[in-house]
Write a structure and sequence with these properties.
Blueprint (H helix, E strand, L loop, with lengths): L13 E2 L4 E2 L6 H10 L25 E2 L8 E2 L6 E2 L25 E6 L4 E6 L8 E4 L3 E2 L2 H14 L6 E6 L5 E7 L3 E2 L6 E2 L5 E7 L6 E6 L10 E2 L35
Parallel strand pairs: 1-12, 2-9, 5-14, 13-16
Antiparallel strand pairs: 3-4, 6-7, 8-15, 9-11, 10-11, 14-15
């Protein structure tokens, strides 16, 4: 898999290319998380050529290429994405169901954001709606470890980077993916929160049951605009008060950043 990520942290943190497991705490919950992390999805496709044009592709391509020769764009944010992988029979050179697996887009820049008074991430070129930006990569946490870290962050007044992604299936089953890039992460950690974000997140699976948290452009974004997403996750903004003050200055700003909810 030709993963390409040439970015680095300006901070003294461990830069990682993709999400990794938290340290082993010998708990049963960690064992289950590790089993999922080391498992492989078995629904490989047998397509030949372009999976987008194959109506029986088991992955049901969620990307489109509206203009020939331009980049792939996400069709819908509300539907989980399953990309083709190295076990699939389709061609890597022609398959249009491979995007996040190649790493973050080029021409992103970490900068000092005057709006937030912290580091931020911006684009040096126009980004089309639905275009992939980067993964929100960090340590994959168990719910108990996430709860412990959130408590420490609150008590010490530290910045909270923990992101909880809740997925619900038609059978009312729930999968919770928790990522913390505070110690180990990639450029995704520099996206600030906004009550009117220009980016959205989507669950993207490639060859593992645990999804990557993909960050995509929620609208067309002009060059040099700061990239932001809603820290409430995939749209379940149930608790947006009594948290840290929000600095986004959007017209619909709630005044507070959303508190992290686990298992909701």
């Amino acid at each position: 898999m030709a993963f390409n990520d040439d970015y680095e942290h300006p901070d003294s943190l461990e830069y990682i290319l993709e999400s990794v497991l938290m340290p082993n705490d010998d708990s049963l919950e960690f064992k289950h998380l590790a089993d999922e992390y080391n498992s492989v999805l078995l629904n490989q496709c047998s397509c030949h050529g372009d999976c987008e044009k194959n109506e029986i592709c088991p992955h049901g391509s969620q990307y489109e290429n509206p203009t020939e020769g331009r980049e792939l764009l996400l069709k819908q944010f509300s539907i989980p994405v399953v990309e083709c992988n190295d076990f699939c029979k389709c061609s890597r050179n022609t398959c249009s169901n491979r995007l996040v697996q190649y790493g973050p887009r080029k021409n992103l820049e970490i900068f000092d954001s005057l709006v937030y008074g912290s580091k931020g991430l911006r684009t040096k070129e126009k980004i089309l709606r639905g275009a992939f930006i980067c993964e929100y990569a960090g340590e994959l946490l168990t719910t108990s470890e996430a709860t412990r870290r959130l408590k420490i962050n609150e008590e010490l007044g530290w910045m909270n980077y923990v992101l909880v992604l809740n997925e619900h299936t038609s059978e009312q089953k729930q999968q919770v993916t928790i990522v913390d890039p505070s110690r180990r992460g990639n450029i995704g950690r520099y996206l600030n929160h906004s009550c009117e974000p220009n980016c959205q997140i989507a669950a993207v699976r490639i060859d593992c049951p645990l999804p990557k948290i993909g960050i995509f452009a929620g609208r067309d974004i002009p060059a040099w605009e700061e990239l932001c997403f809603h820290y409430g996750g995939e749209g379940q903004y149930k608790k947006v008060n009594n948290g840290k003050n929000c600095l986004c200055a959007a017209a619909t700003c709630t005044g507070f950043m959303p508190n992290t909810e686990i298992g909701e």
